[in-house]
């Protein structure tokens, strides 16, 4: 039997603004009244908040979708700001696997510091590549890193549209501004 919206709402409450789930505990003695506490915990290997419901583990963002819309979608659910712990409903959107991958940060092994840009030793130039639906949608060479960055930003906005991410997530940019 799969989890329903009705069953979920009987077991947990969800704040769509804050994006957290709570469960009722206590009430076993007069001295311990029932109270609401945060549900779930962060899965270390993925960074997603996981919550156990009826003995099965679910990602909190998928439960949020079920809680608000009544369905567990077949599609993936993308965290718009890239923060896997931000399960506010306005930070979640349905996405294909490809779209979800477009909204990723710059890989930690990237040496140029610009998502999709690498150095071509043979040509002694920077190369920028963007894929869409498994095919190369943009491939160009540049003399400077600045030219590559500008072209990639424009191309990514055109190709990836609302899922375009130029290598830094919104919450990281905010943290950098606060620190500086």
Summary, kept brief:
This protein is α+β, with helices and mostly antiparallel strands and about 180 residues long. About 25% of the residues lie in helices and about 30% in strands.
Task: Provide a descriptive summary of the structure in words.
The mean pLDDT is 91. The protein is 27% helix and 29% strand. α1 packs across α2. The chain is α+β, with helices and mostly antiparallel strands and 180 residues long. The chain has helices at residues 5-11, 60-69, 97-102, 145-160, 170-179; strands at residues 12-15, 20-25, 35-38, 41-42, 49-53, 56-59, 76-79, 92-95, 117-120, 125-132, 135-142. The strands form 4 sheets. Strands 1-2-3 form a 3-stranded antiparallel beta sheet. A 3-stranded antiparallel beta sheet has the order 4-5-6. Strands 9-10-11 form a 3-stranded antiparallel beta sheet, with helices on one face. The protein has 2 domains: 5-74, no CATH class; 105-179, 2-Layer Sandwich (GCC-box Binding Domain), CATH 3.30.730.
């Amino acid at each position: 039997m799969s989890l329903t919206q009705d069953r979920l709402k009987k077991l947990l409450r969800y704040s769509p603004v804050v994006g957290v789930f709570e469960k009722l505990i206590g009430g076993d003695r007069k001295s311990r009244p029932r109270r609401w506490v945060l549900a779930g915990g962060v899965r270390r290997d993925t960074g997603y908040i996981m919550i156990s419901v009826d003995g099965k583990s679910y990602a909190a963002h998928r439960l949020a979708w079920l809680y608000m819309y009544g369905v567990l979608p077949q599609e993936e659910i993308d965290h718009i700001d890239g923060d896997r712990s931000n399960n506010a409903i306005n930070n979640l959107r349905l996405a294909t696997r490809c779209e979800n991958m477009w909204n990723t940060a710059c890989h930690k092994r990237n040496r140029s510091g610009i998502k999709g840009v690498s150095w071509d030793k043979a040509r002694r130039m920077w190369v920028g590549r963007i894929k869409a639906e498994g095919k190369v949608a943009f491939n160009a060479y540049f003399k400077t890193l600045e030219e590559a960055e500008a072209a990639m930003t424009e191309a990514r906005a055109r190709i990836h549209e609302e899922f375009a991410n130029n290598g830094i997530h919104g919450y990281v940019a905010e943290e950098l501004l606060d620190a500086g």
